[in-house]
Amino acid sequence: MLLRFVLPEDRDTISDLLTASFPSDAEARLVQDLRDAGDMMVELVAVLDPGIVGYIGFARHYDPKGWYCLSPLAVAKRHRRKGIGAELVRYGLDYARRHGAQAITVLGDTRYYRRFGFTHKAAENLTSHFPEEHTLLYPIAPGTSGTAAHLHYPDAFYRF
Question: Is the terminal CB of the chain with fewer CB neighbours within 10 Å at N or C?
């Protein structure tokens, strides 16, 4: 498996993957809107012969500054439970950390994301327009765990 950054010619394939991976095309539209607004900070794909089988994106938060949000993560149905999603998350978190991200949030399944270091405890003082029970934080910079702040997601998040 090869992990690499998204190329412009990957975008239609990624849109198809996202649409097939979720109940609607909302995630595909979210990713496109984040790209169009310049809010997508990191996009990676997992490639197996003959093509893309996984995707992960990290968008910036408008506030707190320097924070990213992981959204979305998708793996083609026939390639799930093979560690592809986990590799995308690990590589994405490492890349974001090395390139200055202060912390990363995710709105997701605690059982899945806690293995990577995301916790509710670190996010306990965060508020947003989204359910707190699904908000997890991966602290990177000292002092980000337990930060009291309102998460301001990019505008694209409020359209869906």
Answer: C
